[in-house]
Each structure stands twice: as C-alpha cells, then as structure tokens.
Design brief:
With 190 residues, this protein is α/β, with parallel strands linked by helices. It has eight helices and six strands; from the N terminus they run E-H-H-E-H-H-E-H-E-H-E-H-E-H. The protein has a six-stranded parallel beta sheet with strand order 3-2-1-4-5-6, sandwiched between helices. It starts with a strand and ends with a helix.
C-alpha cells in the first residue's frame, strides 16, 4: 500500500461556482473525478475536504475577516447545498475520507492530520480550489508538518488566473513539487 494521499480541496458546489468565470468548470471537475478514480485504483488514499460552518456560525470568529464575510452572506452552513461535493465527483467519492474544515487550511482544527498519520501517509498530493486560499494554506502548513508535498497544477484553480500562476511558480514551488495530474499519476506506477 502506498504511503500517499490525494487531498482534494473544496470541490463543493458553492465554491466551484466561484471560479466559473476563470475556468471551464465542467472540464475541471471531470478531470478531477478521473484523476481521483485513477488514484484510488493505484491504492492512494483519497480525502475530500469541504468548507462549512455551523448553522449558528459559532465557529466563525469575529476576528476572522473571511469568516465574517461568509457569515454576513449567510453562506456555507453545514446544512446548505453549497457545501455538498460537486455532483461530478460525489458518486465516486462515497468511500473516500471526508473532512469538514472551518478555516482555510485543510490541516487546521479538524482530524485530517490524525487520519493521515494513522494511515501511514508521508506524501500528499494537493489539488482543488482556490490556489490563493485552501491550496496555499494547506501546502504551507503541510510543509511545516514535514509532509512530502506535490501540487497538481492543472487541478488547482483560482478566480484570478494571474495569482494562480504566480503562486504555482514563485511560492508553492519552493515547498512542493508542482506537476500536472498525468505526471503525478505516472509517478505512482514507478
């Protein structure tokens, strides 16, 4: 069994909609679904991470500007459609590990690290939305936690494509291998 996990960030209906103007979301989620299916076949642990808040927003600190914007808009409550996995990946994800996050990083304030370490995971591949949010925060925290990290560049996206490119080339590449999904999947066979 491989010691690798694929961490898929925020491929939920409410967040996928936010990048509609920047990418072809139908093509994007189809590629995400096929990559996750190939990873599963290769024995990789697939983890679906979604962002949500309690209906009362008891977990949204008034000192957290992003959480306050979400609360003011009434978005991303645990019970909302917006926090459900995008339908294009939901069916294949039934047996994946599912993690709810209440902050930007997938590794903060939940049990993801416990799941990874309990599963013997040493390497993570990170993909999802948005490059300037969950991807950046998760990669930087995972780096400090001594995971070996790969960022799947073609499976990350942002509402600002120029920011996405700069982050991949100038920031994330300093803490992770940055490759396309096909290259990563091929590396699993070696």
């Amino acid at each position: 069994m491989t010691k690798t996990a694929l961490i898929i960030l925020d491929i939920q209906t409410g967040i996928v909609q936010m990048v509609n103007d920047a990418i072809d979301t139908n093509q994007y989620v189809a590629k995400m679904a096929s990559t996750a299916a190939s990873a599963r076949k290769a024995g990789v642990l697939v983890v679906q991470v979604t962002t949500s808040f309690r209906p009362s927003y008891a977990d949204a600190s008034p000192r957290n500007q992003m959480a306050m914007r979400v609360k003011a808009a009434g978005m991303f409550k645990d019970t909302d459609e917006s926090v459900q996995l995008h339908p294009a990946i939901a069916e294949g994800a039934v047996d994946d590990v599912h993690i709810k996050k209440r902050r930007v990083s997938a590794l903060y304030g939940n049990d993801l690290d416990i799941v990874l370490r309990s599963s013997g995971i040493e390497k993570i591949a990170v993909a999802g939305l948005a490059t300037s949010g969950a991807v950046l925060s998760t990669v930087r925290q995972a780096f400090d936690m001594d995971y070996e990290i790969t960022v799947l560049a073609d499976l990350c996206a942002d509402s600002q494509p120029d920011v996405h490119e700069i982050l991949l080339k100038k920031v994330l590449a300093k803490q992770a291998a940055v490759v396309n999904a096909e290259e990563w999947l091929a590396s699993l066979k070696k």
